[in-house]
Specification:
The complex is a heterodimer of chains A (about 575) and B (about 300). Chain A is of the alpha+beta class. Chain A is built from 17 helices and 27 strands. Helix content of chain A is about 30%, strand content about 20%. A 7-stranded mixed β-sheet of chain A has the order 8-9-10-1-11-23-12, with helices on one face. A 4-stranded antiparallel β-sheet of chain A has the order 4-5-7-6, covered by helices on one side. In chain A, a hairpin with a 3-residue loop joins strand 8 and strand 9. In chain A, helix 10 packs antiparallel against helix 12 and helix 11 packs antiparallel against helix 13. The longest helix of chain A has 22 residues. The N and C termini of chain A lie far apart (about 75 Å). Chain B is about 80% helix and about 0% strand. Chain B is built from 13 helices and no strands. The longest helix of chain B is centred in the last third of the chain and has 38 residues. The chains are: A alpha+beta (about 575), B mainly alpha (about 300). The interface between A and B is large, with 82 and 81 residues.
């Protein structure tokens, strides 16, 4: 026995080695040096410019090839795949491939047959009779009949469905009646011209009645579209498979018959940089939501194509609450509008990828009136100062803000961070700074969703609110400016406009069957809201989509949804 | 054996108390946030839900009852281990969590193992070696002060987008787990390495280290066999903190790497006021915390005989 109390040391150590010192240094130094080299290598690799392994552009020779998987990375995610329930843009995009609609939108206000081969509208504009396409079956084998149309529409308006969006599109819906197997009659409570447009969106796609009859927890989207649903891994991906028997594309589609792609995968990738890297390294074939700062770079990269689609509907606008404080005075509203150099701000922030807006409607919307912008109080800081003088805001305080009756000219613009996208917060800072130049103080309290809805949108405690709303119909003007469409009543009138004249115009336009009358009414609304400066148009949101050059044949429909029915993968 | 049983029973009772506290806090938190829950469940700000839809939601989830009654009902369900159904997903909370748990668990376990191994290796190599320690310290401070988010982006840019060694999207197989685990492990390894090294250095200055050396034990043996055991206690104590870091980090890492997981679920649930899902995740986290702490308590005894004797 040795004196050591540690048997392990004694037994295992063997002969005593000679040591230069008690504490050896070599391995540690070596390890640390290796670590430094590794970090340096990472930094070098990351910062090294120019990719060398990128797929080269090949000449587009030969016809479409069937087969393959297309992976499309999306920015958002979704809570439900039921188009009748969800309000998220992602759901519409995915469901567009699963569901066909009764009619297809082909232009700003033109429609083509799809699942309905023809339709008639009664003289009073309240009854629509649809004749349906025969020989179409749902993915689950259920035949497509008038029953399916009735079941789909009834499902949308059923309060138990908890529709967040679809039901609001067909608010005047009263009932559907099955006339025969392939004729269905839809009755509305009042004439409603935007009805056909509503029917053409994926949120009102026709669903299999057998699938709708199942309990909510077992819901699977079953339509008649070119792709059928396979799986949804929450927050990860949705996988669709080709519907081999597909034969019901909308009239005028570039491709008949089944889709070329075997599989269509939608990946949810929330991080911009990750999505961008996944595309440029060839791990996905397409991405949505290309950051504008990268869009320019993409043009110089071989092997990729950028697609930009201007969103129809309401632009990204700033709405001026005309019922509260200083903004009750139209001169102050016009002063704010004239204080902001929208054009310069938008061009600088978005690198020219987002068009500057000078009208609440985007120019791709039906009944858009390009002459209405003459009513807009455009950038003119001197005019803005004059208007403020006229309105009685003649004094200035120590910070340069206008004062009247001892009160500073202050406007509250709540900042709802969760809804922030496309660097809108940066744009707002620019607006804030320019308003300050003429003496208007804009406050931006940061608020969470609950407070934003309760205290501001419903409580009305704001002067300014910014929002965009995409929908390809001029009826969005009714959504945004009719007195009955305040946020509390599920509308978008956040400027709290209360004008009998505007109400008359938008209602007449929604009920008339004469396009010329509708155009005239909508033009009048565009002029009036700009003249009254209820709204300050900022920019037209653009969907920036990037594809690998291998992807061919993707089309975009009138609602800017990508159509994968005719897409194929080249080499 | 009896004292151990009593101690365990006491700890388990305490765990129940912690669970009740966590659930109550979650309940209070979700009710105190301003705003009408029905409207947020209906889809938030963008939703154009009609008043009829809002009424249907209030009826279905009992949102009209006084808060006190809602609380009692909530506790009753919890006692029966019934987490309820998700408001947004229309499915039982247990299945929502169960489906995502595996992904988060493999990420967190991988990161914890990687973090501990890195920390111990670094500490063993650099303790008591001033130059190596200085270099290692710089790296550790870098990794501690860099957000997970940025580490993740750098790793992706280098190893996925540029070198293409690892996929960014495929979540099948071990290859897809490497980068997320590394992003999550590096800050943890930084802190643990510092603590471990300090413990090692203190142990190496003790007379027993000199004794072992005098018997001819190699440096590596002294460090790994003798000193490490002394350095292990503070590291064990920090394990609770590591768990918290892992939970917080998974939310970020899952976003950057587009992974499924509980982090995603809980963020979406808080935003969408999906109360049953939030409660489910909170209760599960509290339970994990408590159980790991009980496990650590028992481990102290294994590592350090003095603790064992004091308890007996």
């Amino acid at each position: 026995m040795s004196l050591s109390d540690d048997t392990a040391t004694r037994v295992d150590d063997g002969p005593v080695r000679k040591r230069r010192s008690l504490r050896s240094r070599r391995p540690a130094v070596l390890g640390a040096v290796l670590a430094v080299i590794a970090v340096a290598a990472v930094v070098l690799v990351v910062s090294a410019g120019g990719g060398d392994e990128r797929p080269a552009v090949r000449a587009a020779g030969g016809g479409p090839v069937a087969g393959g998987t297309l992976t499309y990375a999306l920015a958002g995610t979704q809570v439900s795949l039921d188009p009748a329930v969800a309000a998220t843009a992602v759901t519409g995009l995915i469901d567009r491939n699963i569901f066909d609609s009764l009619v297809a939108q082909t232009g700003p206000d033109t429609f083509a047959p799809w699942l309905a081969t023809k339709w008639t509208v009664s003289g009073d504009g309240k009854t629509y009779t649809f004749t349906l396409r025969e020989g179409v079956t749902f993915h689950d084998g259920t035949p497509f009949t008038a029953e399916a149309v009735k079941a789909s529409l009834d499902h949308v308006v059923d309060p138990a469905t908890k529709s967040a969006y679809a039901a609001s599109l067909i608010a005047p819906y009263e009932k559907s009646r099955v006339v025969s197997d392939h004729v269905v009659e839809v009755t509305l409570k009042r004439p409603f011209t935007p009805f056909l447009q509503a029917l053409s969106v994926p949120y009102l796609g026709i669903q299999s009645p057998a699938a709708l009859a199942k309990p909510v927890a077992d819901y699977r989207p079953v339509g008649t579209g070119p792709f059928s649903y396979v799986s949804w891994e929450k927050d990860k991906r949705v996988t669709l498979r080709k519907n081999a028997g597909y034969a019901s594309p909308p009239a005028g589609a570039s491709h008949e018959g089944a889709a070329y792609l075997d599989t269509l995968v939608f990946e949810f990738v929330p991080e911009d940089a990750t999505r961008w890297g996944a595309l440029t390294s060839g791990q996905v074939q397409a991405i949505a939501g290309v950051p504008p700062v990268n869009a320019g770079k993409l043009r110089s990269l071989p092997g990729f194509a950028l697609n930009s689609q201007e969103t129809p509907g309401l632009n990204y606008n700033l709405y001026l609450n005309q019922t509260r404080g200083p903004l009750r005075d139209v001169r102050v509203r016009r002063a704010l509008s004239a204080a902001v150099n929208v054009e310069e701000l938008v061009r600088n922030i978005y690198f020219g990828h987002f068009p500057v807006a000078r009208n609440p409607l985007s120019r791709t919307t039906a009944s858009y009136d390009p002459t209405a912008e003459s009513e807009l109080a455009s950038y003119d800081p001197d005019a803005a100062r004059r208007l403020l003088d006229e309105a009685g805001w003649t004094k200035t305080d120590a910070d340069g803000y206008r004062v009247k009756d001892g009160k500073t000219l202050t406007l509250v613009w709540p900042y709802w961070a969760e809804g922030n996208k496309e660097q809108r917060d940066v744009l707002a800072e620019g607006i804030q700074a320019q308003a300050k130049q003429v003496g208007i103080k804009i406050e931006r309290p940061a608020v969470d969703t609950g407070a934003f809805v309760a205290k501001y949108l419903i409580g009305g405690g704001y002067d300014l609110v910014d929002v965009s709303f995409a929908r390809p119909t001029p009826d969005v003007l009714r959504f945004a400016f009719a007195s009955g469409n305040t946020y509390a009543k599920a509308g978008g009138n956040v400027a709290l406009v209360d004008s009998p004249q505007i109400d008359r115009w938008v209602e007449e336009a929604a009920e008339t069957s004469d396009p010329a009358t509708a155009d005239k009414d909508y033009a009048a609304v565009q002029r009036e809201v700009l003249r009254q400066a209820y709204v300050l148009p900022l920019y037209t949101p653009v969907q920036l989509t990037a594809f690998s050059a291998k992807v061919r044949g993707v089309a975009f429909d009138a609602q800017t949804y990508p159509v994968f029915h005719g897409a194929w993968l080249g080499d | 054996m009896a004292p151990l049983a009593i101690r365990l029973a006491r700890r388990l009772a305490l765990t129940l108390f912690v669970l009740w506290g966590a659930a109550t806090l979650a309940f209070a938190g979700m009710r105190l946030v301003p705003g009408d829950p029905a409207r947020i469940i209906a889809g938030g700000v963008q939703a154009n839900a009609t008043p009829e839809v809002l009424d249907a939601i209030r009826d279905q989830y009992g949102l009209r009852e006084p808060v006190g009654v809602q609380y009692v009902l909530f506790l009753g369900r919890l006692l029966r281990a019934d987490l309820g159904g998700s408001y947004q997903l229309g499915r039982p909370v247990s299945s929502v969590i169960g489906e995502q748990l595996g992904s988060t668990l493999s990420l967190a376990t991988g990161a914890a193992v990687l973090g501990f191994c890195l920390a111990v290796a670094l500490a063993l190599l650099t303790a008591g070696r001033p130059r190596a320690r200085a270099i290692s310290r710089v790296l550790e401070f870098c990794s501690i002060s860099t957000p997970n988010f940025w580490i993740g982006i750098l790793l992706l840019a280098a190893f996925s987008f540029r070198l293409r060694w690892f996929p960014v999207l495929g979540d099948e197989g071990a290859a897809a787990l490497v980068l997320p685990c590394a992003a999550l492990a590096l800050p943890i390894a930084g802190v643990l390495a510092q603590v471990t090294r300090e413990g090692l250095e203190r142990a190496l200055d003790q007379p027993f280290a000199l004794t072992a050396r005098s018997r001819g034990a190699t440096e590596n043996r002294i460090r790994a066999r003798h000193a490490l055991r002394h350095a292990a206690l503070p590291v064990l104590t920090l394990s609770g903190w590591v768990l918290g870091e892992l939970l917080a980090g998974t939310v970020v890492v899952e976003t950057v790497f587009a992974r499924q997981g509980l982090g995603h679920v809980v963020v979406a649930a808080v935003r969408g006021r999906d109360f049953p899902v939030v409660t489910g995740v909170v209760v599960l986290s509290a339970l994990t915390f408590s159980l790991i702490n009980i496990g650590l308590d028992l481990l102290y005894g294994l590592v350090d005989p003095r603790v064992r004797e004091a308890a007996a």
